[in-house]
Amino acid sequence: MSKKLWSLALALTVSGAALAFPTKPITIVVPFAAGGPTDTVARQLAEAMRKHLDNATIVIDNAAGAGGTIGANKVARAPADGHTLLVWHIGMAASPALYRKLPFKPLEDFEYLGIINDVPMTLVGKPQLPANTYRDFENYIRANQGKLNLGHAGLGSASHICGLMWQYAVKLDKSMATIAYRGTAPAMNDLIAGTIDVMCDQTTNTTQQIEAGRIKAFAVTTAKPLSDHPLLKHYPTLQEMGLKDFNLTIWHGLYAPKGTPAPVLQKLNQALRAALKDPAFIKKQAELGALVASERDKRVTPEGHKAFVAAEIAKLKAVIDAAGQYAD
Ligand code: MLT
User: Fold this and answer.
1) Closest atom of ligand 1 relative to the 205 alpha carbon
2) Fold adopted by 120-234
3) Domain boundaries in the chain?
4) pLDDT digit string (tens) for the chain, length 328 residues
5) Is the whole-model pTM more than 0.85?
6) Quick check: 248 and 221 in contact, CB under 8 A?
7) Residue 120 host element (H or E)
8) In ligand 1, which atom is closest to the CA atom of 162?
9) What is the secondary structure of 253-281 as a DSSP string?
């Protein structure tokens, strides 16, 4: 084949025109139970990405357990052909500080495809909780230490990290009893039923429940009030409530197994970035209080995503080391 033809063939392959991908349904592993915040992000993202992946079928696999590390490990060990992906959040950065025997290395065992969004958290309580303001809430927890329980989705989950950060910030003498679930969807059922007392959960899972009056909300965890959201704007930030520097949003990223071919990674990153510009996806996320990453956000590039997670690993290690006594 002439040199000219070779370079054309190479260009076509790299450009993706001749790229044979996807060649079968794509599986997105969600490392928590169906119906929770991570599942919601993954399903909405899959819908927005499909049209940029030759309308491939995208299947969600809820592989829950151990704070998300079981599902993450499943992807780290999956064939590196681009047909098995992972949607996960700050757990990717928190788990090294919480699991002595983590079965994967966050910065070595995955290809980084880009950050998806940033999601605020809300401090919420069961409907019977005798509190209607954040001040009442904090005073009630203080007055009943050792008697109340907090639900979360396992060590290193967003709800777990938020719970330990809040307990540390208010300097409880005794850490709350915690109940771990396979995700905050099942935990939410128990909060609504009054089986658990409190939770710190993402707005993607709490907004509709707060709106329906099924749970009580007391504060948001972001540094700034959620002034753009018709419901969440009514809740103070924890900084406004005196918890200096409290600032927590839950980012979600998209990952493939290490070794996935570069042209496949490029096509997946292009499909992700196209989805992040999809007005329907942006709107659905905003209705739940979530902010989709913008094209100007350097975290939507593989390099920017990986550098961000590396920094978050160090940041969350410091948080967990400081608040260790509340980490279960
Ligand atoms: C978490 O707390 O990490 C998530 O809310 C878990 C989930 O998505 O269910």
Assistant:
1) 5
2) D-Maltodextrin-Binding Protein; domain 2 (3.40.190)
3) 17-118+250-323, 120-234
4) 565 655 555 445 445 457 889 999 999 999 999 999 999 999 999 999 999 999 999 999 999 999 999 999 999 999 999 999 999 999 999 999 999 999 999 999 999 999 999 999 999 999 999 999 999 999 999 999 989 999 999 999 999 999 999 999 999 998 899 999 999 999 999 999 999 999 999 999 999 999 999 999 999 999 999 999 999 999 999 999 999 999 999 999 999 999 999 999 999 999 999 999 999 999 999 999 999 999 999 999 999 999 999 999 999 999 999 998 877 6
5) yes
6) yes
7) strand 110-125
8) 2
9) EEEEETT--HHHHHHHHHHHHHHHT-HHH
Three-state DSSP state, 318: helix
Tell whether ligand 1 has an atom less than 6 A from the beta carbon of residue 150: no
Question: What amino acid is encoded at 58 in this protein?
Answer: I
Q: The domain 17-118+250-323: what is its CATH number?
A: 3.40.190.150
> Is ligand 1 within 6 A of the CB of residue 36?
yes
Tokens of 117: 């969004």
